[in-house]
């Protein structure tokens, strides 16, 4: 990783250059109106580069256009075809694979605590991104090359792929949130750049996944995703993230962070443990949906109670609202619904297990979508122990 990346490329903290966007002249003609979209877009990129630098822009494009936008969209779009054509499994097993694969997204809080507390190889962010990128690339190679036949094995490989996306997303998000705080007037420019990149990547994925999955083995796409997963290693290794190396005298585990935020960190760790436990329960009790439902309900109840004990009340109330909104929105999932209508003979879920199966996935959806909006412990203000 290049420590000598020039700080001026990222923009020094100082007077913010957030001028108004391009405006049409009062006597604008047809030519001005035709050129307006181009000139507005040109002004947007000039404003972004002036405030954040081209190096950080490259880092965000690779992260949000390629890794999160294109790669994550391909994983979602290819799921049904991969389950039916490559693995030959039913809808229940396909959901099992998806549950295991999505577990890292519920672990983002714990990942953030780890990266904040321990500078791996001298870096709080860059080293973690490079390591998970290597794991994600190897996971896609394994999905493409190995003769995988079970949902559990496929889910474990996809777990590593999602671990890369979730970790890199979290750490890049932490960095651009830090830059937005130093230049608050440029916040809209940063957010628009990030989400614009993500939408472009998703659009590209939607254009080619369907035809490829229809005419070829869906596993072919994993060969395409392997280099994309590794692509983020290049800008991160060159120092484009702007993650400064921790001095040797400050290396090691930061216990002061735990002392400052003991309740929030405890909550993040328990949530990660519950998410991992959910994946283990799914694998061990694949056909015992009652046990799966019991675990999901128990974990959801535990985390809801801990939220009010460990988090600031405003955050806990917001979290509980999001949780209840997820639980009360009954949704069997688009992949299961599609699998049912495209299946040739049997239903995806037996009548005997149907109630527990639906209840368990309702709670699971709430658990996964509700990773508490706590992605970085250091972004929260220091608060005393919540009153019980």
- Stated plainly, the CATH topology is called Growth Hormone, Chain: A
- Percent of sequence in beta strands: under 5%
What is the helix tally?
15
CATH level-1 class: Mainly Alpha
Mean pLDDT: 78
Contiguous runs where pLDDT drops below 50 for at least 5 residues: 1-16, 346-362, 364-388
CATH superfamily: MFS general substrate transporter like domains
> How many angstroms separate the termini?
46 Å
Instruction: Report the C-alpha radius of gyration, rounded.
Output: 23 Å
What share of residues is helical?
Answer: 55-70%
Write the layout of secondary structure elements.
Blueprint: H1 30-52, H2 54-87, H3 91-102, H4 108-117, H5 126-145, H6 151-182, H7 187-215, H8 220-231, H9 233-237, H10 255-260, H11 262-284, H12 289-310, H13 313-328, H14 334-342, H15 354-369
Q: What can be said about this structure in brief?
A:
The chain has helices at residues 30-52, 54-87, 91-102, 108-117, 126-145, 151-182, 187-215, 220-231, 233-237, 255-260, 262-284, 289-310, 313-328, 334-342, 354-369.
What does this structure look like?
This protein has one domain (47-246, 254-379): Growth Hormone, Chain: A. 69% of the residues lie in helices and 0% in strands. The protein is built from 15 helices and no strands. Mean pLDDT is 78; it is low at 1-16, 346-362 and 364-388. It is mainly α.
Task: Please tag this protein with its features.
Growth Hormone, Chain: A; mainly alpha; disordered C terminus
């Amino acid at each position: 990783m290049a420590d000598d990346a020039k700080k001026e490329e990222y923009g020094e903290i100082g007077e913010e250059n957030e001028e108004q966007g391009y405006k049409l002249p009062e006597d604008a003609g047809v030519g001005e109106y035709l050129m307006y979209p181009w000139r507005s877009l040109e002004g947007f990129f000039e404003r972004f580069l002036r405030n954040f630098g081209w190096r950080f822009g490259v880092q965000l494009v690779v992260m949000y256009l390629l890794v999160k936008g294109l790669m994550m969209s391909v994983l979602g779009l290819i799921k049904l075809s991969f389950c039916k054509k490559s693995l030959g499994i039913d809808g229940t097993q396909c959901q099992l694979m998806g549950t295991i694969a999505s577990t890292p997204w519920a672990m983002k809080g714990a990942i953030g605590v780890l990266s904040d507390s321990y500078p791996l190889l001298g870096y709080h962010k860059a080293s973690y991104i490079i390591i998970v990128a290597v794991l994600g690339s190897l996971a896609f190679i394994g999905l493409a090359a190995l003769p995988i036949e079970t949902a559990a094995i496929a889910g474990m490989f996809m777990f590593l792929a999602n671990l890369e996306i979730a970790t890199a997303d979290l750490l890049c998000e932490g960095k651009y949130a830090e830059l937005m705080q130093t230049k608050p007037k440029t916040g809209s420019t940063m957010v628009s750049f990030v989400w614009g990149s993500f939408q472009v990547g998703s659009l590209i994925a939607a254009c080619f996944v369907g035809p490829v999955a229809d005419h070829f083995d869906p596993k072919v796409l994993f060969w395409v995703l392997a280099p994309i997963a590794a692509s983020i290693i290049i800008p991160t290794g060159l120092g484009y993230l702007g993650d400064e190396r921790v001095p040797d005298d400050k290396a090691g585990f930061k216990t002061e962070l735990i002392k400052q935020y003991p309740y929030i960190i405890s909550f993040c760790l328990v949530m990660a443990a519950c998410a991992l436990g959910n994946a283990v329960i799914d694998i061990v009790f694949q056909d015992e949906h009652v046990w799966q439902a019991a675990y999901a309900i128990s974990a959801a109840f535990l985390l809801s109670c801990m939220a009010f004990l460990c988090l600031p009340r405003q955050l806990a109330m917001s979290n509980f609202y999001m949780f209840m909104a997820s639980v009360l929105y009954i949704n069997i999932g688009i992949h299961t619904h599609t699998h049912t209508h495209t299946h040739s003979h049997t239903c995806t879920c037996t009548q005997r297990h149907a109630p527990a199966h639906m209840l368990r996935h309702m709670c699971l959806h709430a658990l996964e979508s509700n990773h508490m909006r706590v992605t970085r412990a250091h972004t929260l203000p220091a608060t005393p122990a919540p009153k019980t």
